[in-house]
Amino acid sequence: MALAFDEYGRPFIILKEQEQKTRLSGLEAQKANISAGRVVSQILRTSLGPKGMDKMLQSPDGDVTITNDGATILEQMDVDNQIAKLMVELSRSQDYEIGDGTTGVVVMAGALLEQAERLLERGIHPIRIAEGYEMASRIAVEHLERIAQKFDFGPTNIEPLVQTCRTTLSSKIVNRCKRALAEISVKAVLSVADLERKDVNLDLIKVEGKVGGKLEDTELIYGITVDKDMSHPQMPKQIEDAKIAILTCPFEPPKPKTKHKVDIDTVEKFQTLRQQEQKYFDDMVQKCKDVGATLVICQWGFDDEANHLLMHQNLPAVRWVGGVELELIAIATEYATLISNEQSNYIFSVGGRIVPRFQELTPEKLGRRTTGESSSEMIRRLTTFSLSKHQSMAHLD
């Protein structure tokens, strides 16, 4: 093998055994492509069904994954053939659109390719085979619509959805807790679903895992859980009637974009620099206090000086909160909802805007929450920071 360059300077490879290589065409090329797709299908065939076997996958880094989920298996497989990559894309599309059946679609595609190979050997053109599959698909869909049964469900009648969800968990590792997990899944989807438009924004559903817990400890939280500590250990761990400032600007002095150098040769210059820096922090903290914020959630970290001032100004703060969590917090506190119960308690939430600069912070952009007579239902475990349409409180270790 040698490397050469053409007249435009583009490199290309010269193979010494080029005469021994042959280019497939016609029926042989079609059979080779079908064979590549069938190989992927046969790998997943043993993972299909309730009695399907799990696959043990090892990544190049040495991480081991045990699963029978078709999308996960194909995602971690090192596939080079372009036709096999189409099978991977098929499984990924099924997972994105439906969320289940990733193994079944690949096995079915492999079976269709196997039958197509027999038709090709009989001299039928590939276009005619594709048209026949499309006609069969339309007939199958019409037949399914005729025999389909309609199940009525609603917020108070979720049993049909739970039974349907249980069938998708039968072959998963979570099989022993499929009833509880099915109920959690259905309630989570219904809480964010728009039943009139028949639309579900799955981005509003987040799954958090905790190392060391049991599967039976799984809990559905109608809100947002951010696993963060307060920026200072002496800050209060519980905040009621919180007014939340959601910031994407850090608590630090402004940094010039050009290179600079500061020479400090006297104590007076050092004191002047320190006073100026402290003034920046005082102004930032005071802006938050002036608008009435009682809790600060920041995407970036705090300087030690700013963290000290926040603690002394009785302004609790949480730092290093991801951008996705900030958006969810803003969405959760954006809703204006009035909820009543038998004791006439109510919770009213409004506001919630992400603020990129301290100068743009106003009382209207705070996420607020007001409770009625009792707030005992607001108490959560002291291990999470929880916000929602129904609660805006912080509980931390």
Key terms:
GROEL, domain 1, extended, 397 residues, ATP-dependent protein folding chaperone, alpha+beta, T-complex protein 1 subunit epsilon, 10 helices, ATP hydrolysis activity, disordered C terminus, 3-stranded antiparallel β-sheet, GroEL
Outline the structure in words.
With 397 residues, this protein is of the alpha+beta class. It folds into 3 domains: 24-147, Orthogonal Bundle (GROEL, domain 1); 163-217, no CATH class; 224-394, GroEL. The protein has helices at 27-45, 70-76, 82-97, 102-121, 126-147, 159-168, 178-192, 267-290, 304-312, 323-332, and strands spanning 2-5, 11-14, 55-58, 64-67, 193-194, 199-200, 224-226, 243-247, 295-298, 317-318, 337-338, 347-350, 354-355, 367-371, 385-387, 392-394. Strands 8, 9, 10, 11, 12, 13 and 14 form a 7-stranded mixed sheet that branches. A 3-stranded antiparallel sheet has the order 7-15-16, with helices on one face. A two-stranded antiparallel sheet has the order 1-2. The protein starts with a strand and ends with a strand.
CATH topology term of the largest domain: GroEL
The tally of beta strands, per DSSP, is 16
Which structural category do the helix and sheet elements fall into? alpha+beta
- Point out poorly predicted stretches: 335-350, 370-397
Q: What string, H for helix and E for strand, traces the elements in order? A: EEHEEHHHHHHEEEEHEHEHEEEEEE
Number of domains: 3
User: DSSP strand (E) fraction?
Assistant: 5-15%
Gyration radius, to the nearest Å? 30 Å
Mean pLDDT, nearest integer?
Answer: 76
Task: Summarize the amount of helix as a percent range.
Answer: 25-40%
The second-level CATH architecture of the largest domain is 3-Layer(bba) Sandwich
CATH C-level class of the largest domain: Alpha Beta
